[in-house]
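Batch 3, record 17
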Amino acid sequence: MRYVDEYRDAGLTQKLLAEIRKTVTRPWTIMEVCGGQTHSIIKSGLDQMLPPEITLIHGPGCPVCVTPLELVDKAIAIASRPEVIFASYGDMVRVPGSGRDLFSVRAAGGDVRIVYSPLEAVEIARRNPEKTVVFFAIGFETTAPANAMAVLQARAQGLKNFAVLVSHVTVPAAIRALMDSPEVRVDGFLAAGHVCTVMGYWEYEPLAAQYHIPIVVTGFEPVDILNGMLTCVRLLESGRAEVRNAYGRSVRREGNVAAQAVIRQVFEMTDRAWRGIGVIPMSGYRLRAEFAEFDAEQRFPQVQAIATHESPLCISGLVLQGLRRPDECPAFGKECTPQSPLGATMVSSEGACAAYYRYGRRHER
Amino acid sequence: MCLGIPGKIIELYEANGMKMAKVDFGGVIQEVCMEYLPEARVGDYTIVHVGFGLSILDEQEAAETMELLRQVEAMAEEAGS
Amino acid sequence: MSDKVDLLSWTCPVPLRHYPTIVMGHGAGGQMMADLIRHLFAPAFANEWLEQMGDATVLAALTGDRPDAQLAFTTDSFVVSPLFFPGGNIGELAVNGTVNDLAMRGARPLFLSAGFILEEGLPLETLGRIVQAMAEAARRAGVAIVAGDTKVVQKGHGDGIYINTSGIGLVQPGVKIGPSNARPGDVVLVSGTMGDHGIAVLSVREGLAFETTVQSDTAPLYSLVETMLAAGEVHCLRDATRGGLAAVLNELAVASHVGIEFEEQSVPLKPAVSAACEMLGLDPLYIANEGKLVAIVAAQSAEAILAAMRAHEYGREAAIIGRVTDTHAGLVIARTAIGGQRLVDLPAGELLPRIC
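Prediction for the assembled complex:
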C-alpha cells in the first residue's frame, strides 16, 4: 500500500534505531499516548529493538479501555431492550461490563450490530423506523467529527429513532492529569498523530512549557514511531521542551478547522470519568443541549447500572498511567486473558495488556 | 486510538447533502465522507478514519521527510555505525 | 416442460412451480418432499448410487484391488451468512470443505452425503442455485453425492439454509499424513494467497460493505495433494479455514510438540486483501481461506514439492514461509517486516474490525 509500506522498511528502521542509540547518553522515559501506536510497536517487535536507555511506557490512549464501567453497563442494558438496535464499532463489543459484554447480549437475542462508520448507524435507523437505533459514540478527538456528523445527519433527515451514547475523551487534559500525578515519571511524550490531524498541536505548546517536557506529534508505522522517538530524544538530550511535528504528511499546527467547527457545534467540554483513573476535569465531550433528543442517556433515563463493580484483581488503571507493565500484573495470563478478560486493557486490541498477551511478551518474563 | 489509512480519491460526488468520495486503498474501494476536506480533489491521497477523510496527505512533505530520514541512514553508514 | 434442473440459468421445474418458496410441507416426508427430491436434488446430483433411493445407499467394496488401502471419513456443517458472496456460495463451500478435509489426510474423496436444513420461506430459486453449485463443485472434485436428507424449520429458526456434508475417501497405502508428524528441520509451505475468502465474505456483510475484486478461493484440493505426494515427503497437511494460517500453525505446533518460525513478508497476500485488512484493522494471518492448504514437508523435498505445487492450477502462488524448530515447542513465532519478532497466537474468538 502506498504511503504505508515504505514506513515499514527494515533497512530504514535499523538505521533510525542506530541513530537513536548513538544519540542517547542517559536513560529517558518516553510515553506514547495512543493505543494504536502501542499496538504497532508491540506487533512489529519494535519495543524489543530499542536501546536499553529508552524506557517506553504506554499511555491511556485507548478510548475503549477508558470508557467508564457505568457506561458499558448502560450500553448493555440499552442493547438488551427489545425495541433497540444497538450499533457499535467492533472494539467495544467484547469489553466486559460488571456482568457481561455486548456480545453476550447478542447471544441472548439482542440486536447488536457492528458498523465501520457512524453513518451506517444512521442508515440503519432510516431503514428501521419501528426500532430505536442507539449508536455507541466512543473515541478520542479523532472520532468526534465522524460521530458529530452522524448526529447532524439524523437531524437533517428528520429521524426520531436515532440516539447516541457518548463516551468521548480528549488528550491534553489527560496529559495534564498524568503530569500532575506524583507517581507518574515521564520525560517526553509521543503525541497521537491522528488526534492531532483533527485538533492540530497548538494545544500542546502550553503543556510543554508548563511541565518542561518535549512533545512530538508522531505517526503509527515503525518508521514514523522511530522518527518521533529520535526527535524526542534529540530534544531531551539538548534540554529543549518544545513541541515538534514528526507526522507532517498528515498533521498541521492548526489541524482540520472544518472538523473542529463541527465538533464545537455538536459537543461541549465536560468532566469525564476515565475507567481505572478517575474523573479528569474538562477531559471529554457531551452533546450540547440543543441535541438532547439524540442523547441516549436522556432517552433512557430509567436505565441504571444494576451493580457496578470492577474485578478486584484488575490493575488497568495503573497500566493506563504507565505505572505498571501488563506483565507485572499478577493476573496477567492467568485469571486474565483475552478469552476471559478482567478489564478493558485486555479486551481492546490496542489495550496494552492485550497487545502484550497477543504478541507474546508473557513468554519472555 | 485511531486507525487512519491513506487512500487515493478516485471520484467525488454528493449524497444526502454531504460531499462524498470513492477512495481506493489499493484494490479496495470505500465510500468516504469528505465534508471535512472541502478542498479535496480527485487524485489526492487522504487519511481515512471510520469512513471520514480527515486530512489530505501532503505528498511533498512526505517526500522531503523520507529524504531526510534516508540521509540519517547515509550519515550513520558514513560514521561506520 | 422439462423436469430436469437447467444448469445454465436455473428455472423452476414445473412440478415445483406451485410453491416459489420452501414451506413446512417440503420437509414432511410426503408428496411435496418427494417432488423436491425427484425434480431438484436428484437431477442435479445424478449418479447410479443416488438412483437406489433407499433409506441408505449401498456402495460396492470401496477398496477394490487395494485391500490394504484405508478408508477416511469426515463431516462438516456449513452455516455461512450471507449465502452468496463474490466467488461462490454456500453450496461450493459445502462440497469443497468436506472434499478438502479428506484430501488433508491424503485420501482421495469418493462419496458425499448432503443434509439440508431449510428455513420456511427460502425462495426455491435460491435453493436451486445452491444445489446447482454443489453439483458443479462435485463434478469438479470428482465426487458423487449419494445420500441426502431434507428438513424444514419454521421461519426465524434458520439462516435460510444450513448444509451438512459427510464424506468418504480412500487413503492410498503408504501415505501417512497427520498433525503430529512435523519434525524439527521440516519446511513450512502455503499453497497460495491468504485471506481471500474471509475478505470476500466481509465485503458483502452489512455495516462493513466495500467494493473489491477479491473473490472467495473455494476449490477442491485433492489433485493438488496428489501432485505433492508424488513429488516428495509430506508430513502434515491442513486446510486453513476458520482461524486462518495462524490457527493451523498453532494446532500443528502443539500436536507435534515443535516450534514453528516464519517470515511475515513471505506469506503471499493479494494487495486488495492487505488493503482491506489495513482498513478494518484485521490481521490477514487470522482470516479464513476455503481453497488453500498449509503443508509441512521434509526439508530435502521442499523445492520439488514447491515446484509441483506451482505447476498446479490451485498452487500457482505457493510459497515457502518458514521452518519447524526444536525451540519454543508449541509456539509460533514470526519475524516481522522490520526484523523484529512477535508471537502469532491462537485467534481469540470472532475476528472484529476495529477503529483504534
